[in-house]
Every structure is written in structure tokens, then in C-alpha cells.
Amino acid sequence: MGDVVELPSSLKYSESHEWVAEHGDGTASVGITAVATEQLGDLVYVELPEVGRTLARGESCAVVESSKAASDVYAPAAGEVIAVNEALAKHPEMVNSSPYGEGWLFKLKLKGPVEGLRSRDEYKQSAGIEP
Amino acid sequence: MIRLALHPLHAEYGARFGSFAGFEMPLQYRDGLRAEHLHTRAAAGLFDVSHMGQLRARGSGVHAALERALPLDFDGWPEGEQRYSLLLNERGGIVDDLMVTRLADEARIVVNASGREKDLARLRSLCPTLSFDLLDAGLLALQGPAAESVLAKIEPRVSELAFMHAKTYGLGLVSRSGYTGEDGFEISVSREALEPLARRLLSDPAVKLIGLGARDTLRLEAGLPLYGQDMDANTTIVEASLGWAVARSRRAAGAKEGGFPGAEVYLREAREGSARNLVGLIGEEPAPIRHGTALLDAAEREVGVVTSGTVSPSTQRAIMLACLAASHPRDAPLYAMVRGKPRPVRLTPLPFVPKRYKRR
Fold first, then answer.
1. Beta pairing partners, B55
2. Contact status of B34 with chain A (Cβ, < 8 Å)
3. Domain assignment of residue B141, yes or no
4. What is the spatial distance between Cα B47 and Cα B25, in angstroms, rounded to a whole number?
5. Is B89 within 8 Å of B153 (Cβ atoms)?
6. Cα separation of B228 and B256, whole Å?
7. What is the pTM of this model?
8. What is the ipTM of this complex?
9. How many separate domains does chain B show?
């Protein structure tokens, strides 16, 4: 805590600490933010949605578990799950070490434009992090 | 909430705090639970366990008198030897688990943080001729394969201690014990000496501070039950699978059979078995299965409950302690219900990770 929390400006953020990276082709990657991983501590297990599942925005679709607690992950945008990060089954700690890179959770084929999310600065403010 | 005397030192090392048994405890430091856990298994971890109660029992015939309260036998118990014991209620339920060290004219008893007041009251009522004090001292645990070499730089004579033996040196009362499954020491030190000793130990590159989070995963890998989680006042000795903690002479047909609170319950269950027992389980998936998770048999009957569970940082497997019906056949299918889905688990002997105590 107190260390600088990395929050890339290219991403959009949800109130419940998910991030979305739009790829410009109607697909997007989803993960959880460094604010979330910092709160959770070392992850020991990640439960991901099934490929092909259709998610509504705000739907509970994954679970990240640390030693002490299990937390739900909510879909930050509506769409169909087209890929999940299989590597997390063996290496859930990648979500801690690289939340925006190797630690991505799943990819969506978006159903319409991504709406209602926050910019980095808005998220920072809502998460109580000094700008 | 009570703050530890070393609170500022913990904060300096980046501790994240949480409440435990009325104390504000360091849960983890900057490196996180997993790194702290593995460091303790590989080198030496320093734990501030000053939240635990350190009691001193004194009075005439102190040792014999304590046998009325605890299923121990002080005959033939050498001075300086430490034993694990259980404080019981009249129904044979476990009020607390504790460590007793025999000293010349007294006994030292280390109790859980949650037991400080209630154990004192219980012991005073069971042994009215004795006096019990709660010592105003700190307790540090140094655990791991490098613990001996680190502590011997400060006090070379600690190397002479065998597992579950204690002796007073210049730095305080040192016992070779702990609750991680590793070799190591617990050092009872005065409040004034606490911080200098902690800093001196931390100046050794082999030593890192370890939080309560890793303390929990370490003890679970070692198959050691945690009071309040794996057992409580409604759990008996036999149910907690702790019959080994009853001195041989206090068991059936022993020279001092029974004679402690709830002894009838213990003797009956030792003979006939209990309806449930604490067992070790392994999950097939590396997903944590937590305290309170129901266990079902193949017919979906509830046959038990998980009392502690985590993913072992050492083996990456889901490990659990659980309270399981004695009627459930040991090799029959068993499932833990996690978020409405059954996950297969199976019984396994404890510990999950071999203990590395230095016995003689």
C-alpha cells in the first residue's frame, strides 16, 4: 500500500474494479485492476466463464480467490465470451504480477458500444487514489 | 481493539493490518502471503505473536494442582520440557488449546489471544490454591530451517535445545517450538527488549517478517488445528482427533485415569469413538475450499463441514481440515459444495507437508 498503483490511460474502468481494453474490431479484453489485486492479495484460484456464454453488463461471470476471500467479477460490458485466459488455471498469480497483460481474464465479442465506464482519472478519484 | 507494542515496526515494514481476537494484527507485509509462506519454509520467518496470552502459574504443589485442570502428568516431566494440552469444560468441550512449560517452581502456559481472559478465569476456578498471572511480555516466533543459525548468532546455547524444550537465556525464555511445522523458536521477552530483539533478528538477511495470513497457511499445511476455527467449546478431544495430547497415565487404565474436566466424555469417546472427527482432505482442483463449506456423500447427504481450507502455497493443492461424520466410509466419494457445485475431495493423512522439528 502507498505504492504507485498502475492504471493505464488507454483502458476503461468499472466501479467494481474491472478494466476493459477495446481492440477496435468489436472485441475487448477484460481483467481486474491493480487496485483490486492490491486489496485481494495473492490470488490462488480464478474461475472463468465458459467460452460462448453471453453476458449482460454487470452480470457476475468470474470469481477470483485469494487465501482469505473469494470475490465476484462482474462483466463491465455486454457481449459473448470468445476466449478465456487458460494460463490462469496453473498461474493465478499472473493476475497479481501483470493485471493488464498476462493476467487478463477473458475476451468479449461486444454487443454494442461500451458504455457507462470510467476513464482512468474518474476511476482513480472514485477508488480514492491521489491523482 | 488492542494494538501490538511493535505496531509501528510492522507499519514501517508495510504491514496490512486486520483484526483478530480483539487485536490489530499484521496480516501480511509488502511481499505478500505466498512469498512470506515460502520464505518461512526456505529460510526464517519472524512472527510477532505477542497477542497470545502468557500465563504464569505458581503456588504450593503447582504441578500436581495443574493436573486437576489439564490432562497432563507432571511425574517424570523434566524441568524445561514443554507439552501441548487442552483446557476443557465439564462437557468435555475444548475451551482452549495451550502450551505448558514446566519450570522449577512454576509453570508457563501460552494460550490463544481469544483465551487470555476466559482461560485465566477457568484455571483459577479449577485450581483455587494456585495464583495465575498474565505476563506483560512480548512473544516472538522465529520459524524455518535457518532459525537455529540465526538465533545462535545472538545466543549460541539455543542450539542445545531439542524440540519442545525451553530454557531462560539472557534474551528471555526461549522454547524450541512453534506452529508452522518448521524447526524454530518462540522467545518470550520483556516489553523493553522486544523491539531491539526484533530489529536485531530482522537485520539478518535470512529473516523476514511474516504476517498472520501466512501463519494460517503454514499451520494448515502442517495439519495443526486452529482454535475457534477447527474446534471450539462444542468439540471434544476425540472429535478434534487430539487424543495424543492426553497423557498416557490419564487415559483409560492409566495410573491417574481421568480426573480432569469432562474426563467421562473423553474416556467414553476414546473407547467407543465419537460421532465425528477432524480429518485432512485434499481437493482435486487447486481451488480453495473454505471454512463452513458443506461436505456431501454420493447420495447428497451432508456428512461434514470444512473447518479450514486454502490452496497450499508449497504444493499448490487445495488442502483442508474438516469435521467428518465417523459413519462416512473413509474411501467413499466425498464432495465439497462450492457455489452450488460439487467438487470432489478425498481423505488424506496429516500433515500435508512434512514437519521438520529437531527432536533428540
1. B109, B134
2. yes
3. yes
4. 11
5. no
6. 29
7. 0.94
8. 0.84
9. 2
